[in-house]
Amino acid sequence: MPYTKLTLRTAVRSMLQNVGSASLDDAKLDVLLAQAKRRLDRDKPNVATTTIAGTGKKFYQLTTTVVGWMNQFSTIQIIQNPKVVIANDDVVQLSDPKDIEIVEQDSLEYLRLDTGIASGTNALVKFTTPWLLDGIDGATSTTIPSTLYNALEFISASVVCLSLSAKSAGQLDDQIEADLINWRGKQAEYKFAARDFEENYLQEIGLDKSKVRAVMLRMDYDRDPQRISYLTHGGR
Question: CB neighbours of 127 closer than 8 A, spacing ≥ 6?
Fold first, then answer.
């Protein structure tokens, strides 16, 4: 069965036990799912390869000639120059990263390779590109492998919980004092859930949680139960 935006939407609602469904319709949820997918793109992008035919020059246009290349996102990982011919037992020659540069001009991005690519030879270029998820950002197919489905669902649930936490916080200005405990409780509950889902996401993609822990703590600075109690009850 193909994995699509609808699959992801159903999975996330199930993970949250449909929490917030009354205030988070499908249209709003889809916006958050797109944000989560872009987080996955950033943390663990798709890696594609392409072949560039040498002309003896140093500049090669990428934007419209390399399928999957996205301006302001894609990066070059390695360049094999010339491309190895296995049958010839060629020696692998990788370009020095210092010789590789991406140059933007007139809304197009170009590869500039100091050594150039000799005429009559090809270079193999490995680069990053966003994943496709059918139904999101205009995609009509899915390239995300099944090994990343859990990660996508975890980070999607985290993004949704952060949104619900912010929404709960926004309700405080409109509530009488007796209701403040309930709204504070919801805000904290969603933020705790968002943190837990994000930690599961990081584990799924193999990132070191300690490297992002400081950022997570800054995001959750007001989740201490005593601080919540103080803000709610006026320090009684």
Answer: 47, 48, 49, 50, 66, 68, 69, 74, 75, 76, 77
CA distance 225 to 5: 36
Cα(207)–Cα(187) distance, integer angstroms: 27
* pTM score of the predicted model: 0.79
pLDDT in tens, 19-58: 656 668 899 999 999 999 999 999 999 999 999 999 999 9
